[in-house]
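[recover] target loaded
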């Protein structure tokens, strides 16, 4: 009689790792942070190249998104004071601490830049007239400061996830910042395509191409390079989300390039890029959660690493 195939189990069927307690609000936090970063880069591009529609849309979206990001983060922390407590120390070795300081630097700069867009609504004379004259140059400086902080804001969340013990996040530490950087650029491009007329949307189209290239490359690596740990990104809800993200990204960048003169195609392409960014962030989030819940994704790679070290030691001894 043949012995039945062994099935992988853990003690009492219990998970080896405690799955992240984070809920959908952290996945939304990942998206809105990237959207804020991409939008501020879009605004800086519009500012430097003299495209007011891009600048205005990017600044307003950056402030809205970073505000939503802070709300999602504070909601997860449970008490607003916990965010304040994070500012009492600065730990370069802690992605959470570094991320808190990045948000603290980015938020006011994005806020000042967005407020400066309302300078034209102020009266020309009196104290408010002075504010009308001062706000535009101050807003330009603040917009450039926000754009300088944006790459760190776009990528630190990838480092934060990879710094955990969650197997499919931890093993993807080279790829997650690349995926999140591309997603941020693509979402910022989506804002530009939605808000600006085709004549001003050139920088948004270029951002869409760069963001799509980074996002698709990183997502492909995450789904193929990690061996067994790529599996959670291909199966179930994470797999469906990441596949949808790829299709929407491809559709969005194709429409951005081929529909240069069509306002309707531009709007549809921008909406597709924004939806792709949401799907990608949520897919990465749920893929990591799934890998923490199944002990196989913790134990099997550990055994493979032990066997590889033993084989290397035996070869060295020979």
């Amino acid at each position: 009689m043949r012995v039945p195939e062994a099935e992988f189990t853990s003690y009492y069927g219990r998970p080896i790792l405690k799955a992240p307690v984070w809920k959908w609000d952290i996945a939304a936090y990942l998206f809105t942070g990237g959207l804020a970063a991409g939008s501020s880069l879009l605004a800086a591009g519009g500012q430097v190249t003299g495209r007011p529609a891009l600048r205005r849309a990017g600044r307003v979206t950056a402030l809205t998104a970073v505000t939503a990001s802070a709300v999602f983060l504070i909601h997860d922390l449970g008490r607003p004071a916990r965010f304040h407590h994070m500012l009492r120390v600065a730990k370069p070795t802690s992605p959470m601490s570094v991320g808190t300081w990045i948000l603290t630097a980015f938020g006011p700069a994005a806020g000042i830049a967005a407020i400066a867009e309302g300078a034209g609504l102020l009266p020309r004379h009196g104290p408010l007239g002075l504010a009308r004259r001062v706000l535009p140059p101050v807003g330009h400086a603040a917009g450039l400061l926000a754009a300088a902080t944006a790459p760190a804001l776009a990528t630190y969340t990838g480092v934060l996830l990879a710094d955990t013990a969650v197997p499919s996040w931890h093993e993807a530490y080279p790829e997650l910042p690349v995926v999140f950087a591309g997603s941020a650029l693509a979402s910022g491009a989506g804002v530009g395509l939605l808000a600006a007329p085709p004549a001003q949307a050139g920088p948004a189209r270029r951002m869409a191409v760069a963001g799509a290239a980074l996002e698709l490359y990183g997502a492909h690596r995450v789904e193929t390079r990690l061996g067994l740990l790529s599996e959670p990104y291909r199966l179930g809800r994470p797999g469906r989300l990441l596949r949808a993200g790829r299709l929407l990204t491809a559709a969005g960048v194709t429409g951005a390039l081929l529909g240069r003169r069509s306002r309707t195609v531009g709007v549809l392409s921008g909406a597709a890029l924004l939806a792709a960014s949401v799907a990608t962030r949520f897919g990465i989030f749920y893929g990591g959660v799934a890998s923490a819940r199944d002990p196989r994704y913790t134990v099997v790679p550990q055994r493979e690493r032990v066997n590889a070290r033993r084989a290397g030691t035996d070869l060295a001894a020979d």
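[recover] notes: The radius of gyration is 23 Å.
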